[in-house]
Amino acid sequence: MASKSKKLRIRYHNDHFEIEKENNVQQKLDFLPSMISLCSSNYLLQTTLTPMKILNCNAAASVPSSFSKVFCDIEYYGKDSFVFGDAFRTGMDILGDYFIRNIVPKNRQFLSVFEKLLDFIDGDRSVKISDPHRVQNLRDKELAIILSNHLFGKLALTSYFAADKAWSCEDEGQCFCDDENCEMTGVYLDTSIGNVEVWHGCMDIVINNEMPVVVPWEAFSDSSNGNNGGEMKEESVLEGCAQLIAETIVFSFLQRKSHPDRNHFLTPCIGISNSEMVVVLYDAKNDVLLESSPIPLFKDSFSGEFSYTAVLVSWLTVNYKYLCTAVPEHFTNDKSEFFVHAKNKLPMYQENLRFGGVLKNPATNLPRGKLKRHKANSSTSMVEHEKKLMEILWRP
Questions:
Q1: CB-CB neighbours of 263 under 10 Å
Q2: What is the rounded CA–CA span in Å between residue 122 and residue 304?
Q3: C-beta neighbour count of 300 within 10 angstroms
Q4: Which residue of 57, 92, 324, 340 lies most exposed, with the fewest beta carbons within 10 A?
Q5: CA neighbours within 13 Å on the CB side: how many for 60?
Q6: Pairwise CA distance, residues 118 & 18, whole Å
Q7: Is 178 exposed, middle or buried (0-12, 13-18, 19+ CB in 10 A)?
Q8: Please, what is the Cα angle at 335 between 329 and 341, to 5 degrees?
Q9: What is the pLDDT of residues 133-168, one digit of tens each?
Q10: Alpha helices (H) in 123-241, listed in sequence order
Q11: What is the pTM of this model?
């Protein structure tokens, strides 16, 4: 996507950068309810993160498991949910300054990250799908490539992504949307991670070498093309999904090993179905596992236009290296107990994982937990963001 930074007319004024833009006010109003959901203390409006506890899993089984054969039984610390924005306070502060005061970051790196969101908002927030019913019937690789090409990649600082080489076909450079001139900004590569002695397998997509995107195997029914080409099932399969949890945990350990100097090690993974997305995060240092509430991908059931909440959550998540501020301190005691269950092989997860050259096995059905939702907690800073945003929303 071509940069629109000239149209945004960002200028330095009174010791801060601000935006001059004719339709700036209407765009803010369109996104305001979704912004509020990320920090709201209102149960009905909240986009939340909930800690999870592993009750039993095969992370250290004598017979190592691929992601497609993962077993991971979990329960939720349901009353300890907190608002999504509390794990992304840097990003929320940037959004708050923009929505409330119309200013953008002084820091050049943060400004570059924020311009990716502004460019996306200013452009076409939809995927070209000629038949609206096709949105509900996209196959796994079609869905993953389209979302990486038109949503996640465009919001990341760089649009590069790697897709599982098992998906490669004759038209390797072509997107699966209905724009015949639309090309992938990614490539098909070996995306396998882990170690054959523990959990391992191929990621569907890896955005900019830093964040996985997973389409769970059980999201698809059998078809003439096999499990890897089936149509998406109607029911949600993302909450408590064992495959999604396992891939997030393994990727987090790998990131900690690769980037030991980072301020924190809370690493996200986005799980997708044809109608919604869920963000799972794992802190490989503090052993905290989080799952977001489901977020609608599209504005409506048969639209190629992305929902405002999906846009904001995707921007925060793909740029977590800059915008995430780790697990709120008062929730670090909600341990996932992965360290306990993987005790015998924990050194393998901590020291011997790799990216590339790891085998992948066929799929099986995967278990998932259930969550009874409670009102999520909001920090003082999130309450303050909500108060100011609500004032704007109800301003005469």
A1: 9
A2: 17
A3: 11
A4: 340
A5: 15
A6: 13
A7: middle
A8: 155
A9: 777 778 888 899 999 999 999 999 999 999 999 888
A10: 140-147, 153-155
A11: 0.86
